[in-house]
Amino acid sequence: MKKVLFRIFAVIAVVTSVVLSVAAHEITLKNGDRLSGIVISRDRDSVVLETQYAGRIKIAMEYIETIDMERPVTNISASGERPSPAMVTNDKPVANAPATTAKPAADLAAKPASPAAPKPKARLFGGRYMGIVDGWEGNANIGFSFTSGNSNTSTLTSGVRASKSGHSDKLTVYARSLWNSNRNAAQSTTQNAVWGGFRYDRDLNRKLFSFGSWDFERDRPKRLNFRSVIGGGLGNHTIKNDRTELDLLIGLAWNRAWQVGANTDTPESLGAAALKHKFTERLKVQNSFTFYQDLTHISKYRFIFDASLSADITKRIGWFFTVGDRFNNRPFGVAKKNDFLLTTGIKWNFGKKK
């Protein structure tokens, strides 16, 4: 009887081994190791693999290069070794595992694909020149118009926007300028304005982040020699996927204005929304809206709005169409409340292109 039971268990073991070998799935890690087993669950962050050698193991998606759901395999890894403990554990991925720049695994299963995990990033500051000049992505644009005859005008617009991301932080810099000359007017230069600044974001978790910002403005027609706005607060990654990103922010700011007449210092509260959306790989829209409320006079407020539609002709060269609006319901002196700007021209993309 014992011999019969032993033979039955031996047959079951052999059959189970054969089934697992034939129906196995293969996961290739970014370090070159290949793992075999049965994928029993998967989400945007990890894959759970049932193996013969270690039971169920959970693998962080950011360390996976590919998942082969079709090809039968029998080997455990390319080197015959188990995966590195830094990459795989029986409970959860190790947070401090070394990062790579390879793309996340593609979802090859029949079920609907989950959004790919973001690729690991390098430190924001570090390396050559403290990393100040490396790793930037963005675009620069310029537009120019010239007329002569009944009207004699020249208009030049330019702008730049760039960002650099680290493990859990991001730095964004931006600037725009407008210059206009009417050669028939007594005062030929009718517009000479510059706006710009930067924003530093630090993730607190997957949704919540803190930020600090500095914005500046110079506008000669408004008789504004220089405005400096230092702000900070909290933000929320309301939407974040491969096609759309929406951030909502709230915080406080200090507005210092040097202008013709008395200079001013104003505490303000701020609320902002920043949206980026990709219609296709070459057609994209981006806009931002920031509202500032004067905390000393509830009736005084201002807002800044920018929206840009861009179409890439090549990977580096593209066309852009931008709308900008600066509104102040209590402007200084005789300046008007609203400054509206509409520009179009050529842009140049720099940094890595996906």
Description:
The protein is mostly beta strands and 354 residues long. Helix content is 6%, strand content 55%. Residues 18-23 and 71-120 have low confidence and may be disordered. The protein has 2 domains: 23-120, no CATH class; 128-350, Outer membrane phospholipase (ompla), Chain C (Beta Barrel), CATH 2.40.230. It has a 12-stranded antiparallel beta barrel with strand order 7-8-9-10-11-12-13-14-15-16-17-18. It has a 6-stranded antiparallel β-sheet with strand order 5-1-2-3-4-6, with no helix packed on it. It starts with a helix and ends with a strand.
> Main β-sheet: number of strands, strand sense, barrel status?
12 strands, antiparallel, barrel
Number of structural domains: 2
Distance between the termini: 66 Å
Shape verdict: elongated
Q: Pick out the low-confidence regions.
A: 18-23, 71-120
Percent of sequence in beta strands: over 45%
Named at the architecture level, the CATH assignment of the largest domain is: Beta Barrel
> In CATH's first tier, which class of the largest domain applies?
Mainly Beta
Number of helices: 1
> Percent range for helical residues?
under 10%
